[in-house]
Amino acid sequence: MRRALELAELGSGRVNPNPLVGAVVVRQGSIVAEAYHRAYGGAHAEALALRRVGSAAQGAELYVNLEPCVAFPGKQTPPCTEQIIASGIARVIIATRDPTPQVSGRGVERLRAAGIEVHEGILQQEAERLNEIHRKYATTGHPFVLLKLALSADGKIATSKGDSRWISSELSRQEVHRLRNRYAAVLVGLGTVLQDDPRLTVRLSQGRDPLRIVLDSQGRIPLDAKILHLNSSAKTIIATTDALPTGKAARLSSLAAEVWRLPAAEPGRVNLRSLLQKLAEQRIDSLLVEGGSTVAGSFFAAELVDKVLFFIAPLIVGGRQAPGAVGGAGLPQIAAAVRLKGFSVGPSGPDFALQGYPEYDQEKGEKEEVKRK
Question: Is the pTM of this model over 0.85?
Fold first, then answer.
């Protein structure tokens, strides 16, 4: 199963919004075939592995990190359950069930009904973590949001003069580029564009460029910004409001940028929920937020962050004017602070990488939802 998980991860950045899936065929204790889902719309891992093993699948075992799919309306590829049954596989070992409502549990039931022995829950936690993006998107229809920040040991993301290059180590920056490959879209605010002029492409590791999004409610992005002049297969989106002048919108379009006019949550801000809904409509299953403290504060205030990744460098910046990691109005009491669950801390070169999942006040969130309606 660990090998199936390793194989699954090889599909990162190429299968969205499908899940990452690896499959291993074992016969008499030895691996005889293995495969992973390589590209969206392509053959699934189970089908590829069974194709490679051929008639030797008869009586063998199949290890797969996600429940095999079944037929359902709108499905474009042949159901893996039927191919497994036809192959003669005797035993299927599954890490976790598919969260997709049309599949969850049905794949297991179909295999057992055909007389195949099925075991579940092997390395389940690792499997669910690997496909946390798919789990969120499949169950809610909304993109999974990861907030990434690089900060000093005293919580600063830049100096009082705006200098931030480089707080994090080269190893940490390489990890960010791997994340850009894994996530379908990456987002920054206008402030980051004005200060750092980033490209938001994948350069320090192999992979494909994500969709690039700039939050710019009034269209103040400079027309010579690097992000508007890239040789990339991925699009650049300017997420803005009706405050964007028509003439500027035309200029941006001429530079191959796509302009999305979205509702304003408040004066000078793009409604982030509307943005995520638009992304979902475009089948964008995941968003990597790399913006500064203002953007981070806005996403936290809207309770839209699913996961955080903070690269904490052994540096002391100091200064009252130096920006902290998360801006905005903040919370009045420590008791109301957003707490991280399932967090972990590990080395990233000389830095520490802290990961965790924000736990919001559910009662407060429900009241806010009723208020919006």
Answer: yes
Cβ contact 45:64 at 8 Å: yes
DSSP element (H, E) containing 278: helix 272-281
The residues, any chain, with a CB within 8 Å of residue 61's CB and separated by 6 or more, are: 25, 26, 27, 89, 90, 91, 92, 93
How confident is the model over 159-184, as pLDDT tens digits? Answer: 988 888 889 999 999 999 999 999 99
End-to-end CA distance of the chain: 45
Asked whether 209 and 232 are in contact (CB, 8 A), the reply is: yes
Would you say residue 28 has pLDDT above 80?
yes
Residue in 6, 9, 34, 46 annotated catalytic: 46
CB 8 within 8 A of CB 130: yes
Query: Looking at residue 12, what is its pLDDT?
Result: 94
Does the pLDDT at position 367 exceed 80? no
Radius of gyration of the chain (CA): 23
Active site residue 109: no
CA angle 103, 11, 277 (to 5 degrees): 60
Alpha carbon 141 to its chain's center: 13
Q: What is the pLDDT of residue 95?
A: 98
Of 96 and 72, the one with more pLDDT:
96
CB 66 within 8 A of CB 21: yes
CA distance 373 to 368: 9
pLDDT of 366 higher than 70: no
Burial state string for 80-112 with b = 16 or more CB within 10 A and e = fewer than 16: bbbbbbebebeebbbbbbbbbeebbebbbebbe
SS3 category, 221 = coil
